[in-house]
Amino acid sequence: MTVKLTLPAQSKMLSKDFIYGVATASFQIEGGKDARLPCIWDTFCNTPNKIIDGSNGEVACDHFNLWQDDVELIDSLGVDAYRLSISWPRVITESGELNQAGVNYYLNILDRLKSKNIKAFVTLYHWDLPQHLEDKGGWLNRETAYKFQNYADLISKVFGDRVYAYATLNEPFCSAFLGYEAGVHAPGIVGKEFGKKAAHHLLLAHGLAMQVLAKNSPSSQNGIVLNFTPCYPESDSAADIKATSFADDYFNQWYIKPLFDGDYPEIMAELPKENHPEILEGDMAIISHHIDFLGVNFYTRAIYRADAEEHFLQIKPPAPRTDIGWEIYPKAFTELLVSLNDKYVLPPVYITENGAAMADKLVDGVINDLDRIDYYHNHLNAVNDAIVQGVQVNGYFAWSLMDNFEWAEGYLKRFGIVYVDYDSQVRTIKASGLAYKALITNR
Ligand code: IFM
Known about the structure:
By secondary structure, this protein is an alpha/beta fold. The chain has one domain: Glycosidases (TIM Barrel). The chain has 14 helices and 13 strands. The chain has helices at 26-29, 40-45, 63-76, 88-91, 100-115, 131-134, 143-159, 172-180, 192-216, 238-261, 283-287, 331-343, 370-388, 431-441, and strands spanning 19-23, 81-85, 119-125, 165-170, 221-228, 231-233, 293-298, 302-305, 313-314, 349-353, 393-399, 418-421, 426-429. It has an eight-stranded parallel β-barrel with strand order 1-2-3-4-5-7-10-11, surrounded by five helices. A three-stranded mixed β-sheet has the order 6-8-9, with helices on one face. A two-stranded antiparallel ribbon has the order 12-13. The longest helix has 25 residues, at 192-216. The two termini are 22 Å apart. 52% of the residues are buried. 5-hydroxymethyl-3,4-dihydroxypiperidine is lined by residues 25, 28, 171, 297, 353, 399, 406, 415.
């Protein structure tokens, strides 16, 4: 097991130009619920049996009150950048205007980051859709895409030059598939006929937001963050390979191909008509708006076999696995980046999330998470291998700055490089956080 994060001496990732950061998301850390409108995750948390530990985001890491200490904490890690998300229901009123108190909250954070020379990577949508929009159909309603454009327009005007990079959406796959097809995330809608419709409106929202970001904030890097779970066949049988390729198109390529090729994968023709999105003339041109960067989130891979009834069947991930049950397989990270680079004409890539949930133990005030250090070491080197093979990766963000509300898992899974005691809200930097800091500061 590795106890240090190291990279080959000649690695581009050891240059000072390579951006290292930590990432969070509004609903997962902020709390401060009374100072914003309700969102779909508030409703989902209040629905019995949706969150494993029955918890919610009302307090979370209390970052709403503790943000100044948290910015000091971020600074103390020596990072170049901080990736945060804006809570749409905190900054926009029900009638679509700015809520100045909410805006001020973020202006203060952005100004403090700037004063410390920490680049702000702002995500506009990390899943906390205002509930009043869900009440009108949420991402199944095309109008939501235009509401998002209005939000992006207003907020990018007031943020001015405080933002280094904007991501429109975080992981539209999760919003669309987990939220509107599998129903395991908010708003909890189940049905194959909904997922791709929601996905189309999310991607449309992305394209519409890109239009206003390009106009209001031409000097920031403007793009999107996609998550990928690369698909591998269980065997080299033709049937397993075909099933795996279908799964890859359904879960991964569905979200990236429209951005670069202006088209959905060909498997659309194999999906029942009632599952198709409604695509209006001009939509694909909006969706394929130029992006300055692609954010890639990677955690694990998935293995598939052919199935007589469904197109594919995912098998149980083999060991080694993290505490959330995801297989640790860094080679897939390299192969993913190289294959995306082969398939598409990519802009520069940022690894906007990578990390591991581990069963951390706080012993005598210390969290000796060697397993997480090992994970980071192997995944950072996997990114380096992709760079060596020609992929332009400009930065890497650890998920996450600190333990937080892990969606349907509640507070049971810890992804932080900083430990959070949820009773006292005391933060303790884990061994992985110290190792990350050493890597960054020793460059
Ligand atoms: O915690 C999430 C994050 O909000 C989005 N990407 C995956 C992380 C781990 O599940």
